[in-house]
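Protocol step 4 of 6: record predicted structures for both targets in the notebook before any analysis. Target 1:
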Amino acid sequence: MSAEIEPFARLAVALAIGLLVGIERGWQRRESQEGQRVAGLRTFALIGLVGGVVGFMSQDGGYWLIGLVFIGLAMASATAYVVTTRAGHDYGITSETAAMATYLFAALAGVGQMALASAAAIVMALLLGYKERLHGLLDAVRRQELTAGLKFLLISVVLLPILPDRGYGPWDALNPYVIWLMVVLIAGISFLGYIAIRVFGASRGIIFGGLFGGMASSTATTLAFARIGAREPVLSPVLAAGILLACAAMIARMMVVATLIHAPLFELLWLPALLLLGATLAPVGFYLMSGLSRKPADAGESLLRNPMELKSALLFGALLAAVMLLGKALSEWAGDAGLWALAAASGLADVDAITLSLARMSAQDVALRVASVGIVIAAGANSLVKGGMALSIGGRSLGLRVMLPLAAGSLLALSAAVVLYLSGSPS
């Protein structure tokens, strides 16, 4: 942009920012009588233009002028708020705050940061325009969910940055930062799964419950659905579909986690994971067609458990630390077979911890082929456990529908992993 045109462009962006916010504020107060609006379209446009001019005049370092005019605008806004409040028209301070923000964004455009100023103004306009939806969201949020979100911020934003990023203990196998980063990762995925269930609601039934419940915990989902199946065997087909969808979500989560930790693992995991996923999802359509006509009312509610209990996060961290230490020890003492034995044992209870550990180790001193086979072993063992859970708790009708595809998928996935391991590439 030429030097002659740029000043006009800056002022044009500043004016556009004022007009944008003014249009939104004017529309929100369109039914108010004349004199009851603190600021309308023209006022916001003028604020934007003044901000642009002040910013342009301050571009050589005289930023004190921006602050001085801002103080004057703040005093004017405060005075207008007091006057309208005394007149019995208490509308809050949103418009006054928007006016001051509009001035700052316009000043930002005036000093040359036009893209940043425009983006900030658009975001502000969206926030102002979504007032009803945002307030509705607050009404819908439960106290335990707000607490869960704050706990997640605690473990991710507060605790994670202060942990040392270095190895401790035998073989330097325990890295506090890495362990807690994995806790944050799994907790975040679980929390998203919980929110997804809340957004879709229990009325959407078993299908969404299974799919999004599997994001949080496919084992917990299997247990919940198996209990429903024990009470109402007639729902076995659709419950089996829900469990298999949860297992499919677990497989996808396993792939995402492993790839995020060490991307080269994808090359060795995609085929076994695809076979396991394909076998798991193969009968779902048939199950749905034969059993979707009825839905138990408690299917969704049984999954709505707070996923951010700090006790659970700490237990997972302890499990992950133990798996990392045992993995390193078995790798030193027993080689590949020791790691695979650990993967099978860990997979009986949880896939995430062993997946995270093996993915991390594959980025250091464990061969990719060894780590990939271990991850597949853990996934297969976990799938068989969930099949056994469905059979023992939900009964034969539900259990066989779940066990057969999971067993077939585990066999296919492990066979593919072994073939890739014997092929010797990559290492």
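Target 2:
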Amino acid sequence: MSERRPGIVHLGVGAFARAHLAWYTQESSGAPWGITAFTGRSPDMAEALAAQDCRYTLVTRAASGDEAEVLDVVLAAHPGSDDGAWRRVVASPATSIVTLTVTENGYRSGSDVAARLVAGLDARRAAGAGRIALVSLDNLTHNGQVLREAVLGAVTDDELRTWIASNVAFPSSMVDRITPATTEADVDGLADLPGALPEDRIPVVTEPFAEWVLEDAFAGIDRPAWETAGVRIVEDVTPYEQRKLWLLNGSHSLLAYLGLQLGHETVASAMADPVCRTAVEQLWDEAALELPLPEPEVREARAALVDRFANPRIRHTLRQIASSGSEKLPVRVVDVLRHRLDRDPAAGIGPGAATAIAAWWLHITGQPELVNDHGAPGPDSDVHDVLRVIAPDLDTTPVVAAITAAADRIRTARSAADRTTSDEGVPA
């Protein structure tokens, strides 16, 4: 029988939650907390966890090698279809936190996520179980506010709406830890890895870096002492959301589109290319000018990203990152440009942003077989079509000229890379 308090309910249990939320919770000092996990739709992970008493191996993959530890913070795992268990656990007085990793689609109108949360909260109100926090761990700006709006939008009972307003907190959070999909080779490799759970079929592989910035909005609500494990508790998460979006996510998109143009497959490979690295540094220079954070902190974040991106043993594919550019570029790249122009209308578009947008343009027109983006313009699009999708108000002569020039530079670099590949017989 575990001594952990079953105080956290998590919806959407997957690799990221098991490498991030679970790890931080297990590493926290003080009274030990546990997690009751629910899957989204498929019952597979609940069944797999239950078969191992909810224990699994976390493999931290550094450039120098792997380290393994066994996490036992998950106390029980249920399929998402178990509505009775969901209502019972959310209504329990022992529960004070519900966390979610349900992807962006889980917050959209018509998703069953909000309805499930409302059902759980209604059961909690009926049980008189007191205040509770709902914490999104998804990569959304102001995710606490987004979650609150999704939940309230699914409430049809005015009395329940009033109860939620008084008893439910929706702290925003920023989370970060690259967690690639576990492969059969990863599973097989556990046999030779000290510290791994014997015969583990569901290990999680992750990078050494982890970050969690959490809004301090837990008045009257118990939570683990996450700050003892490195979680930063702050009044406003917004600057840290911007730092992640503009530095990490923005450069990921740039590396994806530019790297694919130059024949690369992974982030590590693209980051080792001087053409890509220069463009990333330019994008970071532009973002740094707009971030409302101390310069040393921004500099430290950039240095950490260089190390993370260069880790050759974390296989983060560019094709995966390249999806949904029509949704990602406005918040990862264009938002920085808007701040830049608001601060100095004469500044124009920087070379980093111009290269990112130009690379996306060349990606959708020159590599249509790789495009996974319902909002993208077609393969015969020009630069005006591209701007119409991500920044229609910026379709000006100077911006168009800068993006067109950046596209020409990418074509030149691509031709040089093609010649090198032809001459040497290996990718540049």
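Step 5 preliminary note on target 2. The chain has 17 helices and twelve strands. The two ends are 56 Å apart (CA to CA).
Proceed to step 6 after PI sign-off.
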